[in-house]
Prior knowledge:
The protein is an alpha+beta fold and 173 residues long. The protein has helices at residues 2-24, 154-172, and strands spanning 28-34, 37-38, 41-42, 45-49, 56-66, 76-85, 90-98, 105-116, 122-130, 137-147.
Amino acid sequence: MKMALVLVVVGLLLGPGYYVYHKFFTGRILHSIPLLPAADGFQPASFAVGPESSPIRIVLRASTDHDAVIGNTAPRLRYSATVRAEPGTEASFPVEFISTSFESEFQEFAAEVATLPVAHTTTYHVALRQTEPSEMRVRSSVLEIRGNTTEPDMRLVWSGAVVLAMGALLLVL
């Protein structure tokens, strides 16, 4: 029993804990831009970064709420994020928030929009457009730009998942 609990804790730290730490907490915050609502999403945001901050990670943080859901589908909020570098390079990324509750609830979300290398000082423009109607309402949102970020080693993440599964299996047996 003790060994199973130790395996579960180690698995949680190595798997999901390690992954979330690297995706959302590594590096330093370069810009934190409050997003203002627009008809179909948010007003575009712009920021400049230099090569000393490479790679950068763009993270969308949002506070949402929704009414109680009668059906069996959790509320979703989907955006298309278009990131354009000043010289003209442009790419689109899907961003999705899925509620974990069917009750009326206030929730905080964070979603990685993109991780980008920066070769020289560049101004980026980010436009977020809602792609479909949603029952979720956005109370506030911030576009967070993190510099000098790192990517998680997926071997450690999968090792953590295996250790977690072994611990769960030992708890059941």
